[in-house]
Amino acid sequence: MHPDHLAAARVLWDYHRLNHALAPADAILVFGSNDLRVAEHAASLFHRGLAPWILFSGARGRMTQDWPETEAEAMARVARDLGVADDAILVENRATNTGENIRFSRELLAARSIPLATAIVVQKPYMERRSIAALEVQWPEVVFRASSPPLDFDRYCGGALTPELVTEAMAGDFQRILDYPALGFASPQDTPPEAIDAYRALVAAGFDGQLA
Predict the structure, then answer these.
(1) Which three-class secondary structure state does DSSP give residue 122?
(2) pTM exceeds 0.90, yes or no
(3) How far is the C-alpha of 27 from the C-alpha of 6, rounded, in Å?
(4) How far apart are CA 125 and CA 147, in angstroms?
(5) CATH number of the domain residue 27 falls in
(6) Does a structural domain hold residue 210?
(7) Which residues contact 125 (CB under 8 A, 6 or more apart)?
(8) Which candidate, 39, 184, 31, places its Cα nearest to that of 101?
(9) How far is it, in rounded angstroms, from Cα 187 to Cα 181?
(10) Any domain includes 31
(11) Which residues does 202 contact at the CB level (< 8 Å), separation at least 6?
(12) How many domains would you assign to the chain?
């Protein structure tokens, strides 16, 4: 990537991350992902005693349609391999987007009469802000804090997750942060000028593959 584009991508990366301070919660919720480091991070939080159980949510998506199992099942397998007990794991494997992650997770907990007042939502680093914005509107009675693998942009990118692919995803998420409040899907977020400038520069440079 051109150095100017990398600089803009790092600005968006820092914007999307919320750096929430974590405290013990009722549960850890993990929304669908093609990056299984998210499941590893959730297992780490569990072993730190931050919550007594983990709910993994996700079917198959654009980047996981060829997986032999759903995203939720794959992430649950990773957590089990890292020592999270089976009875501390719930799996919701129908959701195909953030709204469905929320809806179907709520339905699963309601069907099992499991109360929830506080939770940690675990996502990819650049999905923290959008997840919290959606939860504030679609699950307002629960207090959520966001967490993600502690990686900067340069260390996060690698293998199939190229800087170009991740940058396109971040641009798409930024667009949704701008557009979704008016649709009733998410809460409004502060958007500093430097983040807007970075987004516009990246879209103008062709990083528009995941725009709506």
Answers:
(1) strand
(2) yes
(3) 36
(4) 8
(5) 3.40.50.620
(6) no
(7) 13, 16, 17, 148, 149, 151, 156
(8) 31
(9) 5
(10) yes
(11) 5, 8, 9, 12, 167, 170, 171
(12) 1
Domain that holds residue 35: 3-204
Tell whether 62 is covered by a domain.
yes
89-134 confidence digits (pLDDT tens): 999 999 999 999 999 999 999 999 999 999 999 999 999 999 999 9
What gap in Å lies between CA 27 and CA 24, rounded to an integer? 9
Both tokens of 30, joined, read 């993990």
71: its two tokens: 């995203």
Give the pLDDT of residue 63.
66
- Give, for 109, the enclosing helix (H) or strand (E): helix 98-111
Q: Is the pLDDT of residue 67 over 80?
A: no
Kindly indicate the confidence band of residue 64, based on its pLDDT and cuts at 50, 70 and 90.
Answer: low
Tokens of 207: 């990083």
Q: How deeply is 166 buried, as exposed, middle or buried, from its count of CB atoms within 10 A (0-12, 13-18, 19+)? A: buried
Output the six-digit token pair for 144. Answer: 């959520």
Is 121 inside any structural domain? yes
